[in-house]
Specification:
Elements: H1 5-18, H2 22-34, E1 41-47, E2 54-60, H3 66-75, H4 82-87, E3 92-94, H5 95-98, H6 107-113, E4 118-128, E5 131-141, H7 149-172, E6 186-190, E7 196-199, H8 203-211, H9 215-219, H10 222-236, E8 244-248, E9 254-262, E10 266-273, H11 276-286, H12 291-301, H13 306-313, H14 317-331, H15 336-345, H16 349-353
Antiparallel strand pairs: 1-2, 1-5, 3-4, 4-5, 6-7, 6-10, 8-9, 9-10
Helix pairs in contact: 1-2, 1-7, 3-10, 11-12, 12-14, 13-14
Length: 372
């Protein structure tokens, strides 16, 4: 068939409702884009919506240069940064348009693309309900046409579809396992050039868990490199707050990475197992809860009564009850205990196996089912 932009967007929307994982969604979405937006390679990212830091990436037909990309993203003044695109009216932009056709104005082009034979870059941020869940870099090799206005518009229009797909992935991949908290976090020490100087013994098992392979792969991972790079930039700009990021491992557990100053120019990254209260805000967003519903849920999970929650949030008990009803509808929980299990350790396998559709708020659209 002759694919139009409307047909591709409709196909991507259907894909977003049934993709079994974020990784497969990225692969299949790329194939669909290729029908009307031909390209030579891409790099898809998942972002922590609390910190806007990259936590995962997936490459398609391009070499892994993520440490350099992270350095450019968080430390170099350049065009079309993910955070800028997320705040802009249009969520996609080309390097050609951003530089007025003079690609050499971009450090990313000079330092990374030109030497690798890359000629055109298109970037998009995935935004839904005010939160950034991912981003993509799409490239064409030198000599290929620049990305057209219609192609940029297509990626802009796909932004919310991609965001919902990533958000759904976080819900459906939620882990049912709760690991005990260690007594001490792991510590990674980097010198001013970004070279790892030392890793504490407590960091090694956490890094292995993060990578799913070795500790070396862990400290070279996207998540660690992103926090280290962003921390270095925050220190140089004298920012009042250093970055942190919540990351889900391949095993389904959650880790927290904190940036810190080491000496005068060095950077440290602390890595520790995430307490459920740190993971909660991310998972609540993934279930499609509004900001107020997230606040109500946090008080419920702390054991507050309806009256206490109403007093804390300066709203009426009736309004609290309305929020609780909506929270239960969206999470499928019937009691406070089930809500706790659903938010932190919920198992969504039955609905996934039944291919239950997901609505615009990334929650399941079917009514809560009776439970045995």
């Amino acid at each position: 068939m002759d694919w139009t932009h409307e047909a591709v967007l409709a196909d991507i929307e259907r894909l977003a409702l049934r993709a079994p994982s974020r990784a497969q969604f990225f692969d299949e979405a790329a194939l669909r884009l290729q029908r009307v937006l031909p390209h030579d390679g891409a790099c898809w990212h998942t972002l922590d919506p609390g910190s806007d830091l990259v936590t995962e990436h997936q490459l398609q037909n391009i070499p892994d240069r993520f440490p350099l990309i992270a350095h450019n993203e968080y430390q170099v003044d350049d065009v079309n940064k993910f955070a800028e695109l997320a705040r802009a009216p249009r969520k996609a932009a080309s390097m050609h348009d951003a530089t007025g056709g003079r690609l050499e104005r971009s450090p990313r082009y000079r330092d990374l693309f030109a030497a690798g034979g890359i000629g055109a870059e298109l970037r998009g941020a995935f935004v839904a309900d005010g939160a950034t869940w991912g981003a993509v870099i799409i490239i064409r090799m030198a000599g290929a046409p620049e990305f057209s206005r219609d192609e940029i518009d297509l990626l802009d229009r796909a932004s919310v579809l991609f965001a919902r797909a990533v958000r759904r992935g976080l819900v459906t991949e939620a882990s049912a396992a709760a690991a005990p908290l260690p007594d001490a976090p792991g510590v990674l020490e980097f010198d001013a050039s970004g070279r790892l100087e030392r890793a504490s013994s407590t960091a090694e098992p956490l890094l292995e868990e993060l990578s799913g392979t070795t500790a070396e792969d862990g400290w070279r991972s996207v998540a660690v490199q992103a926090v280290a790079s962003a921390t270095r930039q925050a220190i140089e700009s004298r920012a009042s707050e250093l970055p942190s990021s919540v990351v889900k491992t391949l095993a389904g557990t959650w880790l927290v990475l904190h940036g810190a100053l080491l000496g005068e120019r060095g950077v440290a990254v602390f890595i520790q197992r995430a307490h459920p209260t740190l993971v909660a805000p991310l998972l609540l967003k993934a279930h499609g809860l509004t900001a107020r519903e997230q606040e109500v849920t946090q008080w419920l999970l702390r054991g507050a009564t309806t009256a206490q929650t109403a007093q804390r949030l300066s709203i009426s008990p009736h309004t609290v009850n309305e929020h609780v009803k909506s929270i239960y509808d969206k999470t499928g929980a019937r009691t406070r205990g089930e809500l706790l299990a659903t938010v932190f350790f919920g198992e969504h396998l039955p609905r996934i196996q039944d291919h239950v559709a997901v609505g615009d708020d990334a929650s399941f659209v079917d009514a809560p089912r009776p439970r045995a």
